[in-house]
Amino acid sequence: MSLDARWRDALDTMPLVAILRGLRPSEALGVGECLIRAGFKILEVPLNSPDPFDSIKAMASAFGTRAIVGAGTVLNVADVETLKAVGGEICISPNTNPDVIRRAKALDMISFPAFFTPTEAFTAVDAGADALKLFPAELAGPQGLKAMKAVLPRHVPVFPVGGVSADNMKDYLDVGAAGFGIGTSVFKPGDTAEIVYNKAKTLVDAWTKVRHF
Fold this sequence. Notes:
The protein is an alpha/beta fold. It is built from nine helices and nine strands.
């Protein structure tokens, strides 16, 4: 299945991004396997984690088409190119940098930049972004997302990131969220594989419930 097809499948069935900040390469395969077993289909290793490209390379190689693996906190074009070289398929940023977005698309990756204002959102869309990350979502809240969704292109999925938990998914979904990026609610450094699985399963179950509510 092509990357585009797997991306569409993730959006349709389980649009949750596991943000694995602080993941070590020695943990990557165990944590990744637990997340996939729980139902996650998108795995992100932020580049301010220890040796992040080693973790990404290991997971991209091991999990093949079972998950879309990539990097977060991608701030420059050089990191986009390194990400592609190690097998990354999704390029996620905490900001809106048109050069990063365009390079990711030129290298046939999913581009997923962050925005906090309509100006940033439209800049990202114009540069070719596949999806938008509302960050930090806890500051905008569901009402902020609702206001911006009124003007954003309907075909561009928006994922709140920051402060998302099983308890507030429905609030964001009700105002147009397409999915969520989830950090400490699914992984913290030091978590065992069992802990990660249990957290991930709780979030997957919560998403399934609110999606079909």
